[in-house]
Amino acid sequence: MKVKLVTSLCVVSLLSLAACETVQPWERGTLAKPEMQLSEGLNSPLYQQVYDSKEASSGGSGAAGAGCGCN
Amino acid sequence: MKMIVVLIVLLTSALSHAAAEGDTAPPFTLPNLDKSATYSLPTGKVVYLDFWASWCAPCRVSFPEVIALQNDLGSDRFEVIAVTVDENPAAAIRFLRRFDVPYQILSDPDGVVAEQYALPGMPTSFVIDQKGFVALRHSGFKTGDMASIRRRIHQLLETSL
Amino acid sequence: MAKPNPFLALSSAAMALPAFAAPQPVETIVAIKATTYQEEDVPQRDVLAGSDERYKIDIGQFRLLTPVGEKWSLGVDVAYETMSGASPWGTIMGADGEASLIMSGATIRDKRTEVSLTATHHGESRSISVGLTSSDEDDYEARAVAISGEWEMNNKLSTLSLGVSYSNDDIEPTDALSFGRVQREEKKSRSLSAGWAQVLNKNSVLHVGLDVTDHDGYLSDPYKLRDVRPDEKLEWALSLKYRRYFDNQNAALHLDYRYYDDDWGINSHTFHTGWHQNFGDNVRVVPNVRYYSQNEADFYRGTDDFGLATSVNQSSDFRLSGYGAYTMGVKLIYSALQWDVSLSLDRYISDKSYGHDASDQSHPALLSFNMTSVGLNFRF
């Protein structure tokens, strides 16, 4: 069950990546919006610490920025 | 036969997307932000064509410097044209509230002119000489970039004397 | 009196350095946040001895991120916490056949300070960061170093991130001699992470991440009456984050998923979704829900057996049991040109019945908490 779940997640991720369009630099306004960012400032370390200390799991929270197109 | 057609299509599309240094700056006509008038790329003057957007962080840094540029060089032989690619012009209007802008702001929400100029990133600006050729293309903006841009503009203004 | 550490017993100090994107920041950002976290008391009937008051923690966070010169940026993070409350020392089978808790007495205030410094060099389409973190409290000290890099590709539509970190933690449990605890122990953690962020179209972006961490050293909880864990733990987590903007609604959807697995027999699923709704130009409301579910560790036991040999791995820590949890939260943000202010409210409830692979017995220490945060950001 576990292996099937992980495999299907990887497949879904790869399919999504293959379905990308080219977005021109002048079309990246929406991607630059604060509500479209992958990490959320001080929220990330706060919630990560709260949950890591109350549950057995950790990791999975690091995120890179993407698609702003600003130089 | 098909290969030749494909090659021709590829070549012509590559040509129509050329606004690199040395190329002719594609002429265009765009409305201003409040849609009260349309403007074309001026000829016979040195033009600083600045593509910007309200969502582009380095544009907050470039604006005061471009305003200073127009104010310093006057408007007889030099003109700044700023084109916003904001899909929502209201966002551009809100961004401009904090500035006192002495030049034209034009609106290109569908990116038609942006595509003609094949902007490599945001922001991108072009120094266009009196004959309509791209003398300088500058992508991105950091404090200190304006020095080299000013030098190029001064060079062009001096040669026409 | 015992002063168990609520936040560090199961984790190492901040592998969580701020995510620095490849381009140099154009302005200086200062962020501050004040949070109050309050666990609900244990029901009296579940407490055999000790206090029924659980943790109350107040947290202050400060962050500064500023460009330096043309190619560098500097990040400073400071966090300060004060905590009070009792924690479970052990779990005993009561006369009624139900597990009961032996709790510590309520504690006096304990404090923790954490400082992080990160320097980043920005290239044309890549950045490299080095960070140092130091965390200190009465009984626990952690030092960590992290190096990471980001590479933008495909005209900045794709971003690859790679990171490696190393952390060294020292624990000196309070009242070690009087309670027969270990006096001084050490733990080392090494972590590798990789991520890929991909713009899918004008309105959506996807991030895939993989983290692998190895812990080595003293991994047990020294404040428990009976807690023996392996001296090594290998864990990994696969994460997916999706962001999609809806033009007509002027809102964005966040969908996050994480699968976690370790060699103590624990695996977990975490789902988090939020709807970021804009109202006009200045207001945003974000209702959000988190669902978490884990199974139990190989050596988990519902109640402590003091007759068991201490060479055998054993723990009745509720955090190693099989259970599930929901968090319901809402965040309100008001944004102006150079600053924004936010208020977040979260409520967390946990129960064995919420889990995908629950333990036989419900652990009496499974908790609920409420958390409130106020934040302020400045840009200049």
Q: How does this model look, in words?
A:
The complex is a heterotrimer of chains A (71), B (161) and C (380). Chain A is an all-alpha fold. Chain A is 41% helix and 0% strand. Chain B is an alpha/beta fold and 161 residues long. Chain B contains five helices and seven strands; from the N terminus they run H-E-E-E-H-E-H-E-H-E-E-H. A five-stranded mixed beta sheet of chain B has the order 5-4-3-6-7, with helices on one face. A two-stranded antiparallel sheet of chain B has the order 1-2. The N and C termini of chain B lie far apart (52 Å). The mean pLDDT of chain B is 89. With 380 residues, chain C is mainly β. Chain C has one domain (29-379): Porin. Helices cover 1% and strands 59% of the residues of chain C. Chain C has one helix at 176-179, and strands at 29-39, 47-49, 56-68, 72-84, 88-93, 99-103, 110-122, 126-137, 140-153, 158-171, 185-201, 204-217, 232-246, 251-262, 267-279, 283-294, 323-335, 339-351, 369-379. A 16-stranded antiparallel beta barrel of chain C has the order 1-3-4-7-8-9-10-11-12-13-14-15-16-17-18-19. A three-stranded mixed beta sheet of chain C has the order 2-6-5, with no helix packed on it. Chain C is globular, with a radius of gyration of 22 Å. The model of chain C is unreliable at 1-20 (pLDDT under 50).
